[in-house]
Amino acid sequence: MNKVVVAEKFALFDEKWSPKIVGELNGQYVKLVKVQGEFIWHQHEQEDELFFVTKGKLDIHLRDQRVSLEEGEFFIVPAGVEHKPVAEEEAHVILLEPVATLNTGDVRDERTREHLDWI
Amino acid sequence: MNKVVVAEKFALFDEKWSPKIVGELNGQYVKLVKVQGEFIWHQHEQEDELFFVTKGKLDIHLRDQRVSLEEGEFFIVPAGVEHKPVAEEEAHVILLEPVATLNTGDVRDERTREHLDWI
Question: Which value does ipTM take for this structure?
Fold first, then answer.
């Protein structure tokens, strides 16, 4: 039972698109991820996914719109909705999603992380 | 499907200790609450509860310790753990907890909010 200082946790890693777990509640993980560049189109069939930006800018592309997030803004991608996160420059994002959620959703490729570490 | 600009939402209300709903995912609500002063001791029997401070300072008193949160820090109070939030000055907090969670947990008093509004 310790508090989490988000900025300190972000300072512990540099890898992009590789979420780290920093908390668990009610069957969900709180994760931190650094992003830069373009991720892949994917969806999570059963799970809603929250993106909260703490540094930089993140665009979440949906098939029919683009949601542009800046620091202090969040967006929830509903289950079953295809999305592609894109960040021109490095951005820091808090994710919230069920424990079972895979980062690439219904797609498996070299970006898929089957196992996530706690930091 | 709209993004949430947290600071804009906080600007919509002034009432203390009265959480407003700003998002829902996987059976949980994302809530915003302004706090100042001392809340009551309570617990949530089944639900873990996350407190993320976006402005000011919040102390979460537990029976055996005190967790002091500042901006950009969060703490998860596990289900069944008695806690009392205290803020000397106004603080802004994002809460995450199951839809069914009552703000005063196992206690009902004049601070209990049976119905929460979406903003």
Answer: 0.94
